[in-house]
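Working notes for the structural subgroup meeting. M.R. asked for a predicted model of this chain before we commit to crystallization trials. I am recording the input and output together here so anyone reviewing the notebook later can reproduce the run.

Input as submitted:
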Amino acid sequence: MGKWRITVILLFAAAAASLLLVFANSEDSFLTRGELSVRDLIARHGRRTPGNPKLIFLAIDSDSISLDAKADLRGLFGIQDETTPEGRALSMMSEHWPWPRSVHALILDRLMSAGAKVVVFDLLFATPSEHDEDFRAALDRHADRVVIGSNFTSPEVRESAPISTTLTLPTESLIPPRETLDSRIGYVNFWPDSDGVIRETQFQTNFAQFIDPAASIGESDINSLAAQAVRKFGRSELVPTDTQSRAFRYTGEPRFGFPARSIFEIFVPEYWKRNFQSGKAFEGAIVVVGAAGNWQHDEHPTPLGVMSGAEIQLNVINAVLNREFLRSVSKPFSALIWILAAALAVGGSIWCGHPIRRVGLLLLVATAWVTLQFPLFNHGGVFVPVVGPVALIAVVGVGSLVFDLIRIGAEQLRLRLALIERKRAQEMLQTANEQLEQRVSERTVELTRANANLTRLIEEKDVLLKEIHHRVKNNLQVISSLLNLQSSQIEDPVALQIFTESRNRVRSMALIHEKLYQSQDLSRIDFGDYVRALTTGLHASFAGQSSAVRISSDIEPIMLSVDSAVPCGLILNELVTNCFKYAFRGMDHGEIQISLKRTEQAHLRLTVSDDGVGFPKDVNFRETESLGMQLITTLTDQLDGTISLRNGRGTTFDIVFPETSEAKP
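Returned structure, recorded in token form:
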């Protein structure tokens, strides 16, 4: 028995690991999404990149673009002469957006005169506009200290690369075309992961591979906005020179890591003096000019929340200057982690026989592994697989517990059958004693004492059998409680649903043993009483979505043996669970009807129906990969019964099986 148990656990662990690895390598699976969510959780609560005071965000925000054209600049901002650069800038800013490009020239000149080392415009100037000559002259004056944005557009996404095929450059009236791309240009794009969150950046890409060959840009590489800014800052050695994407460590939550300062304030004398120390705040700084707020649709999800594109650029620049790149472990090391997780799960399941200790050990291992991620992230900048290995430990641990409980249940069933046979033998002996009593009067007293002893023994066996059912019920409730405790730590809705359904299945089996030891007849239960108790528990389990769902039952007074009650209870659990999960989507209320009746052919008919949306017509319930439907068909076969589906106003499942049959092993 020991070798057979080890073999079963090993085979189950291998199957679980293979299935989970398939999900882990799928781009949009629940494991991949869970892994990304865990990484975001670590990023939110782990170490951040220290903020650099020489990185400044001047925001084109709602305050800057909503200046009143009728405002009195003299009275409002203290502008004495509207012909000064400050007066002209504020006058043009008070016009509608987009501003005349002379405003950007004035911004650039003012920042450069204040000592800014690099000015980055996270803006696109794709079409010609008035006053381009003023901005072009400013760009030429400060060519070695300014960067402006270009943009990859996405008419077509190629499978061979994560970027698009067309590059939108600044208008030729600002930067004339050259054989090689002007060093003042950098692309502003970030390419998010499959869940839409920006965790990585790409500092360089190659024209020849990804951009429309018709573009007259040459075949040189194009650098990102952040890469160009760091190079012009004088730290070219820190910028990666390949086209690989790199994860980076963020500095702070949106609007806190790099607080946005309204750009119009640099032209208001009082703000210039008070907020920017008369320009000293910009000395030696990298200043990023870009939109704040979603009025330009330039906000993107990040691990720390939704950020504007300009703020993400500042986070990338800060990460480069601080060498704060993050990386995932190599595939061989990742495979080693999976192997260790499987070994721990199998070892704990084989050598830790006590259920509570086993679950506690596996929980301790999983908790320790999750906790270890924070020092790895904080001090090593490393991400390692978390969700997949923890899920493997949980699946193998729960699976081995269920297997052991089934094995114990089978042994107890054999013991019960032996006790029944012994009881029958005692009854035969009692009959023989009565016959002997008639023949041998002198042994009447002796036979009476023997019969009394036998009666006491039978009562003791009944008590023992009730205790067995009671303990099986308690063990199953322990498992249900452990699953409930574990589910409270799970944030992923898919994993939480799996735990809830497993808990309900265990609860349905525990309820049968509870009814058995409460019954006068230890071999049969009142199935109507069982149905009412089971549906009450399921109604409570789905409390968040079952308040408007009513359950009615029509159960004939039928006593089922444990061999039929267990599979019937599991079938009923799965069908009612499916009703709660799928039948009433988009509906305000609904009803589930359950009936168990005898047919004329000495069979029993179990019917579960609802008035919900109906079973999908394009799905064959006998061939679905759903674990619940597979359990239903398998358990129906164990009952030597048949199952049929009727789709009308809702869904109806009919299971017909012999009343006197026993479930197949």
